[in-house]
Design a protein that fits this description.
The complex is a heterotrimer of chains A (237), B (370) and C (420).
Chain A lengths: L2 E12 L2 E12 L3 E5 L6 H8 L7 E6 L2 E2 L5 H6 L2 E4 L11 H8 L6 H14 L1 H5 L10 H14 L4 E5 L7 H16 L3 E6 L2 H7 L2 E6 L2 E7 H6 L1 H8 L2
Parallel strand pairs in A: 3-8, 3-9, 6-7, 7-8
Antiparallel strand pairs in A: 1-2, 1-4, 4-5, 9-10
Chain B lengths: L3 H7 L8 H25 L2 H26 L7 H24 L8 H30 L4 H20 L8 H7 L22 H19 L2 H11 L1 H6 L4 H23 L13 H14 L4 H17 L7 H15 L14 H18 L1
Helix pairs in contact in B: 2-8, 3-8, 3-11, 3-12, 3-13, 4-5, 4-6, 4-7, 4-11, 5-11, 8-11, 9-11, 12-13
Chain C lengths: L2 H36 L6 H23 L8 H27 L7 H18 L7 H4 L14 E2 L12 E7 L8 E3 L4 E3 L5 E7 L12 E7 L5 E3 L4 E5 L4 H4 L3 E6 L7 H23 L1 H11 L1 H6 L4 H26 L2 E2 L5 H17 L4 H21 L5 H15 L14
Antiparallel strand pairs in C: 1-10, 2-9, 3-8, 4-7, 5-6, 5-9, 6-8
The chains are: A alpha/beta (237), B mainly alpha (370), C alpha+beta (420).
C-alpha cells in the first residue's frame, strides 16, 4: 500500500498558543483512517491544517507526492483533497441543488458530474426530494448528508470528514456510517475525525488517538478498540 | 477568619479623608496651565502661541474621542458634530451675552465678564453636547459597529445642514432682546459665526487640556475604564462577566460628547469662527486620524499625535497641499503594519522602549555588578 | 394651479426621482456587494464614483478635443468610449484598493478594516484635490490633463438631451416674413395654456457654402403670451430672433411641449441602470461565478473548501462594484453636468446617500440596494419639492436613523444576529 497522505511533525499555533505539538500520521490509498480524541484534543485543527485553512507553523503535509503545507485551500481542493466541514457546513441561503453544484465547482466535465450527482442522490435519496429547498431549512441529519454528497461531487481522492455524527440521532448516525463505508468501497480514501470513537473504530481500518495536541496511540482499528486504554477513555467501558 | 467587611475596616488612613491627595492632581492642572501661559510668550512669538492654542483644542478633541473610539471600541464618526454643538453654544453665549450685558462684543472694560461668559458658555455647550450625545448614543449603541459609524456620521451631517439653515447674525443689543428664544436660529448660516472674542488664552486652553487628560486617565484606570476595555476586546465575554453593555457604552459616549463640546467651545474662542463645515465628516475624520495614529486607548498617544499632526504642516509649509494625502497614507500603512496605532492601548510611560530608555543606565549597572 | 398641472408636476418629480434613484441604486449595489463578501463598509466606494465622473469628464473633453469636434456633435461611439474608459479606470482602482489596502488586513479586527477604508477614502479625496490642469492648459494632451483640482467643471454634453414626447401640431411651408424676430406660418396655430411651442425648420446650406454641405435642422421657440389662435400669415415672435426673409419657403413643423416631458437622458439613465441591475441579478443568481460569490458571502472558509479561489472572487466583487459605480458616474453628469472636486461636500454626500440606500435596503442584499436607492431618491425629491428644499439631506439621514432603529438589518436584510 502506498501512502496518499503523509503528515510529519505538524505544529499549529493560534497566536502564541501551540495547539498541535508535532503530530505525524499516514493515510494509505483506499483506507479509512480515523482520528479520535476528546473535545479540544486538536482533531479539527489537524484537519484544518491539512485542508489549508489554517497555516502550519512547521512540519510537512505531503499529499499524493507533493508538499501542500504552503498551498492555498482552494488549490488543495483542486489536487483532490476535499474536506467536508464540521456540522452545518452547508450554505443555508442556497438551495440543495445549488449546494451540490458548488460541490462540483472545480469540475467542467458535465456528463460526469451528472453521473456523480445520480450516484450521490442514490446514496442519499432524501436529498432528491429536497432539491429546490433552501439548505438552511433541512434537518441536521439532512444537512450532514448534503455536506457529504457535496464533497462526493468534488470527486476527491481523499475525503476528510469532520465529525459527521455530531448532534445527530443514533439512527441517522448508523446511516451516515453505512454510507461512509460505501463511499470508501467505491474507491475514495477517507480520513475521519470523530468523537464517537465506537462508531469510528468500527468502520475504519486504522486509527490515531489524539490527546491535547499529541498522538498518544495508533494502530489497527480493531486492536485499538479492544485495548484497555482506549476502551476506558473513549468507549466508556 | 475575618469577613471581607472586617478587612475593609482594617484599611488604614480612610482614603476618603485625604483631601490633599485628592486635590493634588487638580492643582497640578492649574500649575501646568500657568506654566504654559507664562512660559510660552517668553519662548515663542504670537503666531506660534496661536498654533499652540489650536494644538490644545485638538488634544481635547482627540482625547475625548479616544474615550469612546479607543476605550470602548465603538466607532463614532460624528465627533465634529458634538464639537460644533459646543462651539456654537459657547460662541453664541459669549457673543449674544456680551451684546445683552454691555451692548458691545469686545469691550476691554468688560474683559472679566467676558471670560465669565466664555466659561459659562463652555459649560452650557458641554451640557448641550452631552444631551445630544445621550440622544444619539442611547438608541444607536444598541447597533453593531459599522452601523454606529453610519448613524454618528449622519448625525454630524444633520447638524451641519441645520447650521447652514440658520439665519443671519444679529449685531445689536436691541435686536438680541427682541429675538429672545429665537436667538437659536440666528447663527449666521453657511458663512459661520463671526466676531466671537478670542478670550481663550493659553491658560484656559491648557487648563482644560490637562483637566481633560486627567479625567480620561482616571476613567481609564477605574472600574468603568476596565469595563469599557473589556467591551472593546470582546462584547460577548464582557456581557457574560456581567458588564452592562448599553450603560457603559452610553456613559462613554456621553462623556466623549461632553468633552468634545468643551473642545468646540474653546475652538470658538481662539479666533477661529465656527462654521457649519466644522460639523461635517471631514472634521470628524481629522480627529479620528489623531486617535487612531496615536493608538486607540492611549491618552498620551492622542496628545502626541495631535501635537505632531498640527505642528507638522506648520513646519512644512510647502508640503501643505500634500498634508492630507500623507496623513491618509500614514493611516493605511499604520493599520497594516501596526494595527493598534503608535502606542496601542498603552501610555507612553508604559512602553518597554520608553521605560528602558530611562532605566537603561541602571540596568546596565546591574548587569555590570553581576 | 389647475389639477392637470399639479398632476403633471407630481409625475415630473416622480420621473426625476426614478432617474436619480436608479443611479443611487447602482452605487449602492457596489457597497452591498463588497459588504456581502467582506462584511465591511467600503467607505472609499463613493470616491470611486467621483473618480468615475472625473474620468468621464476628462475622456470626453480630451477625445472631442483631439477629434476637433464639438461635444454635442460627437458620434455615439465617443460616448461609448468614454463610458468604457470610466469603467476601466474605476475597475482598476477598485482592484488595487482591495489588493493593496484591504487584503493585507484579511482576518484583522473589523475596526481596523473600517479605519483603513476611511484612510483609502481620505487618500482618494485628497489626491483629487491636487491642482489639476484643464485640457486648454495642457495643450490637449491626455497625459498632461489631470482630471482633478478644486474647480468645478462642466461635463460636455456628449449626448444631447431632448424631449421625446413632443406632439407635432402643424406642418407646412414658412410664409414670407417681414419683421426681424418674427416668422409667418401658412397655417393656423392653436396655442394652449401651460405649453411651450417651438418651430423646427430645415435650413438649406448657405449659398457660399462649399459643395456637399448639408442642410441642417434649426429650432425657433415661439414666444407667446396667452392661449388663443394665431391665424395663418400672422406674425409670430420667436427666439432666437431670425430674419424672417431667411426662413421664407423652408419646410417647418410646429412642436408642442408635453405636460410631462420625458427626456432622452432620463430614459437612458433608467434603462441603462435597470439593464445593469438585471444583468447583475442574473450574474449573482444564475451563474457559477455568482454562486461562488454567494458562497464566499456566507463563509470564506467553507467556500475555499469547495475549491473556490476566494481572493479572486473578492477581487472580482470589487471590480464589479466599481464598474457599476463607474456606470452611474458616467450617467449622472449627463443629467447634472456640473462636476465638482472630489472632496466637495455635495459629491461626498452623493456617495453617502447611495450608501444610506444600501443600508436602508439591507446591506449585503442585492435587491435591497435597488429598493433603497429608489426609496431614498423618492423621499429626497418629493420632500424637497413639497416640503422644503434645504432639508433634503436631513430627510435622507433621518430615514437612515429611523430604519436603523426600527429594523437595524434594513428593509430586506436578513434578521439573523451576528455570528459569535
Amino acid at each position: 500500500m502506498s501512502a496518499l497522505l503523509e503528515v510529519k511533525d505538524l505544529v499549529v499555533k493560534y497566536g502564541a498558543i501551540e495547539a498541535l505539538h508535532g503530530i505525524s500520521l499516514t493515510v494509505n490509498q483506499g483506507e479509512i483512517v480515523s482520528l479520535i480524541g476528546s473535545n479540544g484534543a486538536g482533531k479539527t485543527t489537524t484537519l484544518r491544517a491539512i485542508s489549508g485553512i489554517r497555516r502550519a507553523a512547521s512540519g510537512s503535509i505531503v499529499f499524493n507526492g507533493a508538499d501542500i503545507s504552503r498551498q492555498a485551500a482552494h488549490a488543495i481542493v483542486r489536487s483532490g483533497l476535499v474536506q467536508s466541514p464540521e456540522g452545518r457546513g452547508v450554505f443555508p441561503n442556497m438551495t440543495v441543488a445549488e449546494n451540490l453544484d458548488l460541490g462540483a465547482f472545480i469540475r467542467n466535465d458535465h456528463a460526469e458530474i451528472a453521473k456523480d450527482l445520480e450516484r450521490a442522490l442514490g446514496l442519499f435519496p432524501r436529498l432528491r426530494e429536497r432539491m429546490g429547498q433552501m439548505a438552511g431549512t433541512l434537518s441536521g441529519g439532512e444537512q450532514q448528508m448534503l455536506a457529504m454528497a457535496r464533497a462526493m461531487l468534488t470527486k476527491p481522492r481523499l475525503l476528510l470528514l469532520d465529525e459527521p455524527s455530531l448532534g445527530l440521532a443514533p439512527q441517522i448516525v448508523q446511516t451516515i456510517f453505512k454510507i461512509i463505508r460505501e463511499i470508501n468501497a467505491s474507491g475514495t480514501t477517507i480520513l475521519l475525525v470523530e468523537q464517537n470513537a465506537r462508531m469510528a473504530l468500527q468502520v475504519s481500518h486504522r486509527a490515531y488517538v489524539l490527546e491535547t495536541g499529541k498522538i498518544v496511540n495508533q494502530g489497527d482499528a480493531k486492536e485499538l478498540a479492544s485495548s484497555d486504554v482506549v476502551r476506558k477513555a473513549y468507549l466508556g467501558h | 477568619m475575618k469577613t471581607l467587611a472586617q478587612h475593609q475596616q482594617d484599611v488604614p488612613g480612610k482614603v476618603a479623608t485625604r483631601w490633599d491627595v485628592m486635590l493634588l492632581p487638580w492643582v497640578a492642572c492649574i500649575v501646568v496651565a500657568l506654566v504654559v501661559h507664562f512660559a510660552s510668550p517668553v519662548l515663542v512669538n504670537e503666531y506660534w502661541q496661536n498654533v499652540l492654542r489650536r494644538v490644545g483644542v485638538f488634544v481635547i478633541a482627540a482625547v475625548s474621542l479616544n474615550i469612546v473610539n479607543g476605550y470602548a471600541g465603538q466607532f463614532s464618526m460624528g465627533h465634529a458634530g458634538f464639537m460644533a454643538v459646543g462651539a456654537y453654544v459657547a460662541g453664541a453665549t459669549t457673543y449674544y451675552g456680551s451684546l445683552l450685558l454691555h451692548g458691545s462684543v469686545n469691550d476691554p472694560n468688560f474683559y472679566y465678564q467676558g471670560i465669565g461668559l466664555m466659561l459659562g458658555g463652555i459649560g452650557l455647550g458641554c451640557v448641550v453636547a452631552a444631551i445630544a450625545g445621550y440622544l444619539v448614543g442611547l438608541p444607536s449603541l444598541r447597533l453593531r459597529g459599522d452601523y454606529l459609524a453610519i448613524v454618528t456620521l449622519g448625525f454630524g451631517e444633520i447638524i451641519r445642514v441645520m447650521l447652514e439653515l440658520t439665519k443671519g447674525q444679529l449685531d445689536n443689543a436691541a435686536a438680541v432682546k427682541d429675538a429672545g428664544a429665537k436667538l437659536l436660529i440666528h447663527l449666521n448660516g453657511p458663512s459661520g459665526f463671526f466676531g466671537i472674542p478670542s478670550y481663550a488664552n493659553l491658560f484656559w486652553i491648557f487648563l482644560f487640556v490637562s483637566v481633560t487628560c486627567l479625567i480620561a486617565y482616571r476613567i481609564k484606570y477605574s472600574s468603568t475604564g476596565r469595563a469599557l476595555l473589556s467591551i472593546r476586546e470582546d462584547e460577548i465575554a464582557a456581557r457574560s462577566m456581567g458588564v452592562d453593555l448599553t450603560k457603559y457604552k452610553v456613559r462613554a459616549f456621553v462623556l466623549a460628547a461632553a468633552l468634545g463640546g468643551v473642545a468646540g467651545g474653546l475652538y470658538s474662542h481662539i479666533g477661529a469662527n465656527p462654521s457649519p463645515t466644522d460639523a461635517g465628516f471631514q472634521r470628524s475624520f481629522d480627529v479620528i486620524l489623531l486617535v487612531v495614529l496615536g493608538g486607540l486607548g492611549s491618552i498620551s498617544g492622542s496628545v502626541l499625535a495631535a501635537i505632531v499632526l498640527i505642528l507638522l504642516p506648520e513646519v512644512l509649509r510647502e508640503a501643505q497641499q500634500y498634508r492630507l494625502i500623507i496623513f491618509a497614507l500614514l493611516l493605511i500603512i499604520m493599520m497594516i503594519v501596526r494595527p493598534k496605532g503608535l502606542f496601542g492601548v498603552k501610555e507612553i510611560w508604559e512602553l518597554d522602549w520608553f521605560t528602558g530608555w530611562f532605566s537603561g543606565k541602571r540596568r546596565e549597572r546591574k548587569a555590570g555588578a553581576k | 394651479m389647475g389639477i392637470r398641472i399639479r398632476v403633471a408636476d407630481f409625475v415630473q418629480t416622480l420621473i426625476a426621482a426614478i432617474a436619480v434613484g436608479s443611479l443611487y441604486a447602482l452605487v449602492a449595489l457596489g457597497y452591498t456587494l463588497v459588504y456581502g463578501v467582506l462584511k465591511f463598509i467600503n467607505f472609499a466606494h463613493s470616491d470611486i464614483f467621483v473618480l468615475g465622473t472625473w474620468t468621464s469628464l476628462t475622456a470626453a473633453v480630451v477625445i472631442t478635443n483631439k477629434m476637433g469636434i464639438e461635444p454635442e456633435h460627437a458620434p455615439w461611439w465617443v460616448a461609448m468610449c468614454v463610458f468604457l474608459l470610466a469603467i476601466a479606470m474605476c475597475a482598476t482602482f477598485g482592484y488595487c484598493i482591495e489588493r493593496f489596502a484591504y487584503r493585507p488586513l484579511r482576518g484583522a479586527p473589523r475596526l481596523n478594516v473600517l479605519i483603513t477604508a476611511i484612510g483609502v477614502s481620505l487618500l482618494l479625496q485628497n489626491v483629487g484635490q491636487l491642482p489639476g490642469k484643464t485640457v486648454a492648459e495642457s495643450g490637449g494632451s491626455p497625459a498632461a490633463t489631470i482630471p482633478f483640482g478644486a474647480i468645478p467643471r462642466n461635463m460636455p454634453a456628449l449626448i444631447e438631451d431632448r424631449v421625446l414626447n413632443e406632439t407635432s401640431v402643424a406642418e407646412g411651408t414658412m410664409a414670407g416674413g417681414s419683421k426681424r424676430g418674427t416668422v409667418k406660418l401658412d397655417q393656423n396655430l392653436t396655442i394652449e395654456a401651460e405649453r411651450q411651442y417651438r418651430i423646427e425648420y430645415v435650413k438649406p446650406p448657405a449659398a457660399d457654402a462649399p459643395a456637399g454641405a448639408q442642410s441642417s435642422i434649426e429650432t425657433l421657440n415661439v414666444v407667446v403670451a396667452e392661449p388663443g389662435t394665431i391665424a395663418a400669415g400672422e406674425e409670430i415672435s420667436t427666439q432666437p430672433r431670425r430674419n424672417a426673409k431667411d426662413v421664407e419657403g423652408t419646410k417647418y413643423r410646429v412642436l408642442r411641449s408635453p405636460l410631462v416631458p420625458i427626456r432622452l437622458i432620463d430614459v437612458l439613465i433608467v434603462t441603462g441602470s435597470i439593464g445593469l441591475m438585471i444583468g447583475l441579478q442574473i450574474l449573482v443568481f444564475k451563474t457559477k461565478l455568482g454562486r461562488a460569490m454567494r458562497a464566499v458571502s456566507h463563509s470564506v472558509e467553507t467556500a475555499s473548501l469547495m475549491g473556490i479561489n476566494t481572493n479572486a472572487v473578492i477581487s472580482f466583487t470589487f471590480v464589479l462594484g466599481s464598474a457599476l459605480a463607474a456606470a452611474a458616474a458616467f450617467l449622472y453628469p449627463l443629467k447634472y453636468p456640473l462636476v465638482n472636486q472630489t472632496a466637495h461636500g455635495i459629491w461626498v454626500l452623493l456617495g453617502l446617500k447611495a450608501f444610506v440606500a444600501a443600508v436602508v435596503g439591507g446591506i449585503g442584499n442585492v435587491r435591497g440596494a435597488v429598493l433603497g436607492g429608489f426609496l431614498i431618491a423618492l423621499i429626497e425629491f418629493f420632500g424637497s419639492r413639497y416640503v422644503s428644499t434645504e432639508l433634503r439631506d436631513v430627510y435622507v439621514f433621518g430615514l437612515l436613523i429611523l430604519v436603523l432603529l426600527l429594523r437595524p438589518s434594513g428593509l430586506l436584510g436578513s434578521t439573523a444576529r451576528e455570528k459569535v
